[in-house]
Amino acid sequence: MSNQKLKLAIATIAALSAEVFAPMFSGTVSAAPPPQFTQSYLRLDRMKELTATGGTICAQPRTTATEADFQITFPTQTGTDFVVNGTASNWTVTTSNLPAGSTAWPGINTATAVSGHTVTFPSNDLTVGTLYCFNFSGTNTLTNGSAGNSLTGFMHTRTAGAAVIDETNYAVALITDDQIVVSAVVPPTFVFALSGNTDTFPSNLDPASIKSTAGRTFSITTNAKGGWIAWAKDSQQGLFSASANYTIPTSGTVDGTPSTLATNSEGYVLDADMTTDAAGGCTVAIDAEYNGATTSAGGTLSANFQPVAACTGTAPATSNGDVITLIERASIAGGTPAGSDYTDTITVVAAGNF
Question: According to the 3-state scheme, what is the secondary structure of 69-97?
Fold first, then answer.
């Protein structure tokens, strides 16, 4: 090999060696990426595409430094992109109803700047190891883009000199609809019961006194939104004896005012008393005609259905077991014909106001 060729070969080897080993001895190195948050996430209030949304941002710092602000960059996507409102004052924040185990982000407040998809919020110094969170408003801030998976953005904290302290890339997904519509049916209910079908005067009728039966109750449970109404009608508007062919007539007229019986005078009335105004949305009231205030008063019995009580109120005015007691009262005169078969039949019905 000639000296010229030898020199050329040596120069080539030296050049290659310098290229390979120069970085090892050079003072120039690539900058290391900033540390990542221990944990961090963006939870959107709505994941439905093309929908205005707020959200919750959480981050747990890893690096000891003095934070001055926090920046989040929302994803950029093909198709319809996220719309990030460019007015910083619209990006208001709250620190209530945060995820369990988190702490309100100190110093967090309305955004100070918006640039493209990046929003900057003020921050106070954070403590390493604490998970901090805040919410940003869902009004006039962020609108989701079109549906897609693994839509990436990043968030970081910075010093007063804008040096990044901790930074993490994150990903979110958007879908066509993020809500489940639940449907159910509560069927209408109406439960009505009488405590018995006979109500006998416990002692003989007597001109010297006014007698009352022990009474029978009716109870109502209903989910009717307007409550309920109960009515009564009488078979013969009095106590009738077939053996004597005589009727002790009902007293008064149906005029919204109870009738008062007197001794040594024939009369027959129906009294309704509220026994239980049960829990529910409606309030029980006795109809004025049958609201006898004394043991000698009651309402006129009619051949037509007359309201005796109702439960009403602002919807939903439901009832969970109202109870009304019906008591018959009677008086006779000295000349009232004798008979052991005086009888009467009162029909009691009710309906829910659905």
Answer: EEEEECCCCCCCCCEECCCHHHCCEECCC
Measured at the alpha carbon of residue 231, what is the angle toward residues 229 and 236, in degrees to the nearest 5?
A: 180
Q: Is the separation of the CB atoms in 57 and 114 below 8 Å?
A: no
Give the model's confidence band at 192: pLDDT under 50 very low, under 70 low, under 90 confident, else very high: very high
Q: What is the pLDDT of residue 20?
A: 40
Residues in the chain: 354
**If we measure between CA atoms, which residue out of 329, 323, 325, 275 comes closest to residue 301?**
329
State the Cα–Cα distance between residues 159 and 165, nearest whole angstrom: 7
Distances in Å between the Cα of 210 and the Cα atoms of 249, 264, 333 are 15, 9, 11
Question: 261, 246, 258: which is closest to 206 by C-alpha?
Answer: 261
For 64, counting Cβ atoms within 10 Å of its Cβ (0-12 exposed, 13-18 middle, 19+ buried), the class is exposed
Return d(Cα 25, Cα 18) in angstroms, integer: 10
3-state SS class at 50: coil
Count other Cβ atoms within 10 Å, centred on residue 237: 16
Whether 108 shows a pLDDT value over 70: the answer reads yes
Per-residue model confidence (pLDDT) at position 31: 64
b/e code 257-280 from CB counts within 10 Å (16+ = b): ebbbbeeeebbbbbbbbeeebbeb
| pTM metric for this prediction | 0.69
CA–CA separation, 250 vs 257, rounded Å? Answer: 14
- Give the amino acid at 296: S
Q: Which of 216, 295, 291 is nearest to 255 (CA)?
A: 291
**Amino acid (1-letter code) at residue 277:** D
Q: What does the pLDDT read at residue 58?
A: 98
Query: Does the pLDDT value for residue 27 go beyond 50?
Result: no
